[in-house]
């Protein structure tokens, strides 16, 4: 299962900011520029515990 997050900025984010997100498990999927606003779409795999059925 994946979690998603969108960051919004009025300029491109730098390598340091990208590395910070990556260190927290987020992977950049795409960047969209709409009306000079940048949207950074990230995803992160969420580990889901398996429940045993007895």
Please state roughly what percent of the residues sit in beta strands, choosing from under 5%, 5-15%, 15-25%, 25-35%, 35-45% or over 45%: over 45%
Overall mean pLDDT: 92
What low-confidence regions span 5 or more consecutive residues with pLDDT below 50?
A: none
Give the C-alpha Rg: 15 Å
Count helical runs: 1
Largest sheet: 3 strands, antiparallel
The shape is elongated
Note down, in words, how this protein is organized.
With 54 residues, the chain is of the alpha+beta class. The protein has one domain (2-45). The model has no long low-confidence stretch (mean pLDDT 92). It has a three-stranded antiparallel beta sheet, with helices on one face. Helix content is 17%, strand content 46%. The chain has one helix at 15-23; strands spanning 2-9, 27-34, 37-45. It is built from one helix and three strands; from the N terminus they run E-H-E-E.
Could you list some keywords that capture this structure?
single chain; 54 residues; alpha+beta; 1 helix; 3 strands
How are the SSEs placed, and which strands pair?
Elements: E1 2-9, H1 15-23, E2 27-34, E3 37-45
Antiparallel strand pairs: 1-3, 2-3
Could you give a short description of this structure?
The chain is 17% helix and 46% strand. The chain contains one helix and three strands.
